[in-house]
Each structure stands twice: as structure tokens, then as C-alpha cells.
Amino acid sequence: MASDFQSIPVIDLALAKSPATRPILLQQLHHALTRVGFLYVSNHDVSQEAISDLKQLLPQLFELDPRSKDEVNLHNSPHFLGYSQVGSETTAGVEDKREQFEFATELPNTWDADKPLYERLKGPNQWPSHDPVIRSVIRSVVGRYIEEMTQLGERFLQLVAEALEIPTDKLFSFLSDQHRLKLVHYPASESIDPVGQGVGPHKDSSGWWTFLLQASPPHVKGLQALNKNGEWIHVPVLQNTFVVNIGQAFEVVTHGVCKATTHRVLSGPLERYSVPFFQGVRRNLTKEEAWETLQEYFIAESTSPALDAGAHIDSAFLRGKYDTWGESQLRTKIRSHQDVGHKFYAEVLDQYVNDDV
């Protein structure tokens, strides 16, 4: 698999609207999915109003007073939703230099002791600000953005099914009832370390696909993707696009044909805003079901993990340590936010933190 890419392809979704150009798009998309794992999408039909409203909200949100942030701190939520300060999350055991608000599709908490523990991940958001007007604006802007990104995710999934020549209903059968959104602020770094960790090397474990809005101007850099040769390739800001990358669950169901590309974010001298939307995977998906559902479409093309420059990246689901996507997701969340694990999931904290996958 020749995946030693040097740049990230741009897929123009407007090509899908004409029978004359749709085959061109599908060919380009197939290449991006099977050879790169990272791509941009342009002409995505997410409204500019939804995007600009969210961009305008970002600095205001992170400028809220410490009390407002603390009242919606992530450690108050068994659903891992809310605010987390710089250094409170780790990747590969190293502190990430970012602060963030995490939101999700607004759903009630329906968990009880008769349900699997991972079902406790589903639940309502924490909405910041004492001012009811500001709180209402935040809910409106974030809610609309999640709704429009959910629709983009479904449109994109239709094209993925066509590009890979697999039934659309099989791909949609993996989707969750809840998708997640992070609003991320990387403060300017005073460190002279040229590879300071904003977020350490990882494969996205929070969803089926990730749709990333790089919300800072083009001169603000930081995102990099790892190619087959072990080279870090810059993913610059391209206006009016989303960066799209494959999540771990999609790598599993495609038998490694469509790999989740390892990526990282470097901290730098300029502050940076970033907004990843994670298209959710249903929590009760088992490794067996994930492996067998699309087996006939991919088994002949499946590739060895040894070809993956990021094969060392921690992934409980990819390596089959835990049987369900929900449990592997809960494990990842607890390992990244051990204070939340200690407060709400003490019975499995030691197991997940020390399982050495």
C-alpha cells in the first residue's frame, strides 16, 4: 500500500451533484481512503452562518471567568462532557497543552445498573455561563453546528459507500445515536521546543469519522499527519474546508484497507482554535460484528498492521482487548481523564489504566 503521501488531497463534494463528475469524485475519494486516511472536503454545504457563528463564539467561550468554567468542569460529568483545563488530558501518558469544551448530541441520561457500564457515556451536556442569554446563545450555536455536521457526516458516508462499493445501509448500521464535538483552544506556547505537544500522536478513537474545522487563520500551524515512511506531513489551514480523517472503528470494519492515520498537534508561539466533530459509533458494536459485517468486501485486500507507521499507537479496539466499542471507548476516556474515572468509574479504573494494551 503506497501511502507515503506528501500532501493531503482535497475532495470537492460539488462533483457529486452531476452524473458527469460524480465518478471522478468517487475515484479521488477511493484513493484518499485507501492510500492516505486524511483529506479535505470543500463545497460541503455546511452553512457559512453556522461556521462563522461558531468561530465567533470560540474566543468568548474560552474567555469566560474561571468560576463559569469550573462549574461545567469535565470531572462533574460521567459522560465526559464539559470543560477541561490545560494539562488535564493526556495522550500516550503525556499532558496535552490545550483547554477544551466537550459537547455532544443532546440526549438524556438513561443509564442504570442493569445496563453495561459503557452506556453511562451517553448523557446530557453541561452548558456554561451564569448569564441565561449567553447560555442560550452557546446552546443555539453549538446545537446548530452539531446538527449540520451530523448531516454532513451522513452525506459523506453515502459517498464513502459508493467509493468503496459497499451497501450504504451496512455503513449506516454502525452509527451511534450520539456524536461528539470538541471546541479546543491551544494557548500560545513560550517553550522553545519545536515539537511541543499540543496533542500527542494518536489515532482518533472517539468516532467513526472526524470532521475538523481549523478555526484559526492560515498562518497558524500545528496539525500534522504521519505517512507510511514515518514522516510528519503538515496539514495547513485551507479556508472553507473541513479536514476529514478515519477513526479506529472504520479501520477495523474495513480490515485495515482504510487505515486511521496517526496525527498530532504541535504547540507553537501563536494561539490556535480547532473544532473536531466525531461521528459516533454505536456503543454495543462488538469486535466480531465489526470484523464480519464487511468481510466479503475487504478481506482480499486486507493489509498487515506492520505496514502502518502508527501501528504502535494505543488502541484497545483495534487490537481486540475489549469486545465492544463502548467498553474500549470508556477505557480510552478514563485513561485520558483519570480524575473522572476515579469519581465515577472507580470499579474499573485500575483495570483500564494498567491493562498495558
UniProtKB/TrEMBL annotation:
Pfam family, one: DIOX_N
InterPro entries, A to Z: DIOX_N, IPNS-like_FE2OG_OXY, IPNS-like_sf, Oxoglu/Fe-dep_dioxygenase_dom, Plant_2OG-oxidoreductases
PROSITE patterns, sorted: FE2OG_OXY
SUPFAM superfamilies xrefs: Clavaminate synthase-like
Entry superkingdom: Eukaryota
Domain Fe2OG dioxygenase positions: 177-281
Any one GO MF annotation of this record: metal ion binding
Keywords per UniProt: Dioxygenase, Iron, Metal-binding, Oxidoreductase
GO biological process, one term: small molecule biosynthetic process
Similarity field: Belongs to the iron/ascorbate-dependent oxidoreductase family.
Protein name (database record): Oxoglutarate/iron-dependent dioxygenase
Source organism per UniProt: Penicillium canariense
